[in-house]
Design a protein that fits this description.
heterodimer; A: alpha+beta; 4 domains; eleven-stranded mixed beta sheet; five-stranded antiparallel beta sheet; elongated; B: alpha/beta; SH3 type barrels; Rossmann fold; eight-stranded mixed beta sheet
Chain lengths: ~625, ~450
Amino acid sequence: MSEDKFDYEELGLMMGLEIHQQLDSQTKLFCRCPNSLTDKQPEGRLERRLRPTQSELGEIDRAAYEESQRNLQFIYETYNHHTCLVEADEEPPAPLNQEAVDISIILASLMNMKVVDEFHTMRKQVIDGSNTSGFQRTGILATDGYIETKYGNVTIETLGLEEDAARRIGEENGKIIFRLDRLGIPLAEITTSPDMHHPLQVKAVAYQLGQILRSTRVKRGLGTIRQDLNISIKEGARIEVKGVQDLDLMPTIVENEVERQLNLIEIAKLLDDRDAVVEEEIHDVTGLVENSQSKVVQSTLSEEDSAVLAIVLRGFDGIIGKEVQPGRRLGTEFSEHGKKMGVKGLFHTDELPAYGIIQEEVDDIKKELNLDKNDAFILVSGNRNKAYNALQEVIKRAKQSLVGVPEETRRALDNGNTEYLRPLPTASRMYVETDIPTEIIDKERVEKIASNLPELPVVKKERIQESYGLSDDLAKQLVDENNADLFEEVQKELPNMEAVKIASDIAYTIKDLRRDGYDISKLTKDVLVEIFSLVDNNTIAAAETEVVLKDACNGIKPDDSVKRNNLEKLSDDVIEEGIKEIIKDNEDMILERKMGAMGPLMGKAMAKFKGKADGKTVSSIIQKEIMNLTG
Amino acid sequence: MVYEGYIRDFLEFSDISIGDTIKIEKDNITHKGMLLEKPDYSNENTLIIKLNSGYNIGVDIKDAKIEKITSGEKPNIKLDPVDKQISSDKDNLSILSTGGTVASVIDYKTGAVHPAFTADDLLRATPELVDYANISAKAIFNILSENMNPDYWIETANSVYDEINNGADGVIIAHGTDTMHYTASALSFMLDTPVPVILTGAQRSSDRPSSDAFTNLMASVTAAKSDIAEVCICMHSSEDDPTCHLHRGNRARKMHTSRRDTFTSINMNPLAQINNNKINIVDDEVGYIKRNTSKLEINDNISKKVALVKMYPGINPELIDVYVDKGYEGLVIEGTGLGHCSDEVITSISRATSENIPVVMTSQCIFGRTNMNVYSSGRRLLHENVISVNDMIPETAYTKLSWAAAQSDDVDEIYSIMQSNLKGEMNTTLSQRYFIKN
């Protein structure tokens, strides 16, 4: 994007980021189960229902209410030991994980934030089934920070510490299946102010936040970080885009969202000019299409309690088919809202006749519904209740199109577009988690952590590259794979050892071993120090470490590995003896070529010692012997 | 909790009260939010505010500048009246609440959770109930179930009596789970009922979307409309939501501190299983008292001087002596194994029985029957006029003896009551199936 598609300043573009990052503590946030996902087959199943609780003022949270309308029931997959009664919502939570609090304090300090004096765990109501309890436990750990960027400082409003949700696995007979291994993994939630104004800036800030996160104990890999983007323009509305995986896609998402909002604003003006009206009555037109050749209509009408229902949108003709984002129309948005109620899809006049519905049927419906030239209708075919609820949602969305852009939560799609997910959550879904005592965070704890902060990855890379004479790639590999600390710890124990050897074994050799299926978790710092000391004290040749590393992955001690593979270097005496034999056999050549015999003699000697003699030692002995012989 | 010490004085002086929106400035940072009450474990110098985002945070007021922005509005709660949809086609059910929160509402503004006490509150929280019955709900008292005692049993029994007398086709009692089985058991002896009396509760409080209260309450409505005219406990049958078990009230026990399916029938199967408003008898061989076969009667005499004493290695026999010295009217021993206690304790028990205090043996094994003929210590206890009460669970033996001790002064008569099967509380034969084995 060398040239901006829109004048973002003129449009009043405002963006904020919300980043969720899994922390790499030993155990989960509110129970002491392993903080990891598992590939094992689940060992148990739970069948549960959730319902929204009513507030005193009779208000149920908007998003929660819509979810409950879908009358969802849930299946949870459990494990005998990888998950426990806490994830199953069968036991009150264990106390807050202090390691996760410490990691969060590190993050807060790196972002110049003020850690709260007391952390209060809250219940945030979420009844989409992703939390067995019907709420997510969450709290604010720090506020009011900033990070410096080349676009100026970006304010970090809050740092939250919360539990991750259960993993959605699939659906079975209308029930959503979740797996409980992910539920309860600690998450840091970083929220910036909406004070970013250019699509490229938001990408740069996301990258920089990623660097900060990766400087401490956070999980790495797919799904361990989730980025949400808040986008609004002056005449539009705030849209929260969930699940942006690819940083490079961020600018495109922003551009497409701005385009969408501009188109929706344009549509609202058009509709206003036409005095468009969304009628609330839902008509049953089953009779008009019951003999239709449309496969969709046929297959839904063959089921019990099914119907084809319609609504009238006065003045909408030609507008439902208008594109709002590349390849997505206003009708797509209506359809997304309807589908949340469990119907497969809807038809609108701008696309009909199509899908087996013929012009005659369209005309019949238009006649029945008293449609004028400028009017449109929307059809939904399916279970009567679901179709009715779906059209209620479409009516709501269609009414919003008269006004402009509705505030909502949308899901990022791989092509840079977004689709409707749910309404924006309101603040009303919070209340106190009474099962977790207030966590008092004293100043000394914060100060101690703040005075010992980790380096940012870029800084660390440059430093180790410089001070150990590593190549650019080697230093980058160590930092990216989170192995720089390990390298430095091992190196510190063996200060005379060649640092590049240690670094390249850790960065490359061990990485290859992991790829080949070796259990590299056995290669702890102590084991590595033991292995590299073998090189350092001349027991084995540097080239032989790979064999010893492989053996160590299989639980074989380095000393035993040296023995079983016969790796030990020959002693200087043995080498000298062997060289003397070679010298004797080649006396004529040596007398003739003097030092020129070095090369051929080296070759013979190294072949004889089969790599178990150090080249330097061999060469110095040969040199000495030649001198002796030639005087 | 309330704020104390100089914080309280400061708030009073500044005319700031709970619910006001305040501004706290500290270290160049400004927090704005609504002042909340102080939770437990909070530091004494800390103010708790609810931010606009809904989150609560605590701010230490040291070096802070605090300013009131707006006064909190008194919540003007105007709730629409509930349409109870009274119809002669539906059964009349009474729901009596004894405390705990089988239904509750959350004030998201402050984050406070309020139990739903009035009938309207309850119906507003669980509006689907009116589809199945004409519901009349009352809060008879508000206590935690660990604070239950025989006086409350009497009050509950009388409330149930009044409801049935006034035409209830079934009564549901919302009760904390900790001692629900004691109350159920006591009611089973105090009341003869022509209609179902169902105790229910929740292991997950009703302010949570995942609360078991809703399923339990709905299943209890089904149970209360059923043919089973006994005092029963209706709670989850497994960790899954849809299904509940209906336990005979004097045969069930809380067996897990936290799981939904905590209640288990001991030495029998549950009477019925309830799933989606349908009730199925679990074992046709097990009988129950059918609707309208008993005449409504209440006998609420109950002794408050009966004790339940657990035997354990090293127990000091003086613990028994204390009860005798204090004039207790009955002792239930939770013995070891088949119904045993140490030689030392037998001496004290012997003193109790010789002073005409009935002593009843149960087992801390929970499952199975006591049998004091097998080992010598059992035979000695029998000799000392201690009686076995078959497979009755200790909690039921305790409530039954409390009731029996108030029916007569004569030990033999009390023993006779204890050994008679009055309300299905004991069995003569035990099926091999009646045991928990995972």
